[in-house]
Predict the structure.
Amino acid sequence: MTPFGLRVRALREKKGVTQKEMAEALGVSAAYLSALEHGRRGVPSWPLIQKIVGYFNIIWDEAEDLQRLAAASHPRVTVDTAGLSPAATLLANRLAGTITSLSETDIAEFLKRLDEIEGR
């Protein structure tokens, strides 16, 4: 599941609607919505994100947050290290090779450090 899928599921459950009901309201199939929630589909289109924002009557900061989650939720990431240092290539490859064995605590620590680097 992606961060976007997790948020959409939480919003849907809070509203008390099924995937089928939400899918019909958005004009997509229930299978597509399920795949989106479970991270088996890529980043949704901007028009679909707008429909989701409208469906849940989300405003301002929460809408921007949902858009950021969508952009950061592609389940198959490619990292292009061409032109970067050998250490950057090593980092990308080691992370790709070990990500499945990281604990949630390890992942949280990595994300915290990235937030510090990005000034968040």
Q: What stands out?
A: The longest helix spans residues 104-118. The radius of gyration is 17 Å.
